[in-house]
Amino acid sequence: MTTFDQLGLSPALLDAISKRGFVTPTPIQAEMIPFLLTEERDVTGLAQTGTGKTAAFGLPILQNLDLQSRSTQALILTPTRELGLQVSREIAEYGANLPGLRTTTVYGGAPFGPQIRDLKAGPHIITATPGRLKDLLDKGIADLSALRFLVLDEADQMLDMGFKDELDAILATANPSRRTLLFSATMPPEVARIAATYMKNPHEIVAGRRNQGVGTVTHFFYRVHAHDKYVALKRLIDVKSGMYAIIFCRTREGVKEVAARLSRDGYTADALHGELAQAQRDSVMARFREGNPSLLVATDVAARGLDVDNLTHVIHYDLPDEVSAYTHRSGRTGRAGKSGASLALVHMREGHRIAHIERAIGRKMEEARIPRGRDICEARLMDLLSRVKDVAVNEEAVGPYLQAVRDSLAGLDREELLKRFISVEFNRFLEQYDGAEDINPTLSKIQPNRNAAGPMVCLRVNVGRRQSVLPPHIIGMINKATHSGDIRIGRIDIDANSSDVHVDGAMATRVEQALAGYSFQGTTIRVERVADRPPAWRPKKGGKGKPRRRG
Ligand code: ADP
Ligand code: MG
């Protein structure tokens, strides 16, 4: 496996990378960084979101800067202000050990004054949205005559957003002997035209198609009748405790409606769509980044540039019109070494679109069934029980109250206590789902056993970060050891010396037996069953796992 110190990067950058906590370069980083450091050619990169592109171009650019000079040597164009700020922040972190490094970000919707002042200071790197940069160039402010790197980040999105003229103008005026790097998740003709017009003999890199980047996403779809979609959505949310998800709708009306219905039903969910003013959008995004609320209903355009690393799920309430939007959406989960799930609600007339999507993502989507009322109550109960088993008891703090508790519950036997304890937590679910119908359409094609979502069991194996384990290794190990590719695998949490993997309860024994004694890079694998635990990111405050209620 490649490591960062084999890529030709300077000690100052390697130090910043390890402070950032990166251990292994992503595939696109492993390929691009040495290429950019040793060759002079332009590059096009076809890569999904979440594959680590920022470091792939950012690190070589930083290494190539002449910090003594006051000229602008690199320009990074991004579709939105949020993406621009995010790229800038990341580059500043990688450049933390480079004394005298000056960077700046310019974008629309903010006053010109401070941006003009920053540009006049002679930044080495400018990150910009095309519209604002074009305005500044027209005013004669930014100087791109000594540019050495011009990066088009998310080129397809920039063109989707109507920045064609601005891109043409900027590309035509920037120093002709610069190197141009173009990144895009898709290559529609308009992107290909930009590459053909403004790039010289570009080296092409494809990443993230077979190798889905730093994490793993499992793709599921659920067939539902169009009129059951909202009920189906609620069940998908209810069956998981601690879901942190973006729910995508095609239109802003859809977003408003779904968010309003969720709020009415006692969930806290924010809405993000184009009608909000920039300040409102910023505050919705900031709240969601904090994980509170943990559900966000959004349109594709509005969610662009919202950067969150640890989404557990992406839900496609509506399938997008364009397949590329599906990739953008689902690339938002399963990032930074974590596993995630992409759940699509597909109504009966949309079945044929699954095959298109499968072709675009280069993998199968698994058909799954909307959980029934009983499944939901059971899953949540199991979750509660494992939390009860695992909770750390602070003897000293609890001590003083124990006698009072004993006195007040004195009349209840164990059985009675258990019933009440469940009811306190569960009446909402039990009542809501009492007698709830199965909303899965009856289709002879669906094989209930293979797809039914039974309970998962958590297995712990004795290899972790220290052995450079990533989720794909664990999945590969399970597939190889069991000689099977279709065991349902859920969340994978990697610790320093061990990893927890959730597998289909019905298959757990088989997996356990197959893995025991298996060898991973010299380590003999040991397996033990452990109680499930909440994901590490889950916000501490508030009742974890309880349905979130407003007010
Ligand atoms: P892209 O631009 O391809 O969508 P980013 O560059 O934004 O992807 O990276 C996605 C996430 O992965 C970021 O949170 C980033 O910090 C993280 N990341 C990037 N490279 C690595 C790495 N080598 N190891 C672990 N995490 C990484
Ligand atoms: Mg990016």
Give me the CATH architecture of the largest domain, please. Answer: 3-Layer(aba) Sandwich
How far is the first residue's CA from the last residue's CA?
Answer: 51 Å
Largest sheet: 7 strands, parallel
The CATH topology assignment of the largest domain is Rossmann fold
Strand order of the largest sheet: 3-4-2-5-6-1-7
Radius of gyration: 26 Å
Approximately how much beta-strand content do the residues carry?
Answer: 15-25%
Mean pLDDT: 86
In percent, how helical is the residue content?
40-55%
Task: Give the CATH H-level superfamily of the largest domain.
Answer: P-loop containing nucleotide triphosphate hydrolases
What's the number of helices? Answer: 21
The level 1 CATH classification of the largest domain is Alpha Beta
Bound molecules: adenosine-5'-diphosphate, magnesium ion
Poorly predicted runs = 209-215, 443-452, 535-551
- Total count of domains: 4
Number of strands: 20
Coarse morphology: globular
The SS-based structural class is alpha/beta
